[in-house]
Amino acid sequence: MAFAERVVAQALLVVMAALLQLSQAAVYKVGDSAGWTTIGNIDYKQWAATRTFQVGDIIRFEYNAQFHNVMRVTHPMYRACNASAPLATYTTGNDSIVITTKGHHYFFCGVPGHCQAGQKVDINVLRTAETAPTPGPSGLSPPSAPSVGVPAPSESNAISLKASKWSFSKLGLAMGAFAVLLSGFY
Ligand SMILES: *[C@@H]1O[C@H](CO)[C@@H](O)[C@H](O)[C@H]1NC(C)=O
Ligand SMILES: *[C@@H]1O[C@H](CO)[C@@H](O)[C@H](O)[C@H]1NC(C)=O
Ligand SMILES: [Cu+2]
User: Fold this and answer.
1) Can you tell me where the transmembrane regions are (predicted)?
2) Which residue's CA is the closest to the ligand 1 atom numbered 6?
């Protein structure tokens, strides 16, 4: 391989690796610096509304486990703050939940009074036009949000990583640019 070709090939690899990173999962800490709490009347609805969640993203609940917990519940239970039969309960104080399906994922704190006080959040992964909707009864998210204890992707990537849909067109653009560059070598 000629030197110039090798340089171009290596540069292409770097660009492709960078683009692949774009489709990596994001980590969202619920409530940001405030975390998961009843103090300060955090508007978790507003918090969720200003984010675009995707399948593969990680939702992290950080809280004092002496005072709070996390329950994943159905839509009716969410609306009623009914903690009698949660789909899943998390109690470590630092729970990372991988979102594996599209649609709504309802969580609240199961400590009496806390959900009513607003400690509840609806993580909604939009069903985009290009992917088929997940089958299942409406208003009930499929039971598939396992907790993970492994180190997660860094939070700083959360915003920039939302561009996965562009990856392929960007990849095409980048390759086109390199083809132009490449032609300059000969
Ligand atoms: C709470 O949910 C359980 C299980 O779905 C149900 O049996 C019960 O009636 C509900 N309680 C209230 C107060 O809605
Ligand atoms: C929670 O866990 C994540 C890793 O999953 C870690 O980066 C973070 O520092 C932990 N937070 C606290 C408050 O322990
Ligand atoms: Cu609580």
Assistant:
1) none
2) 84
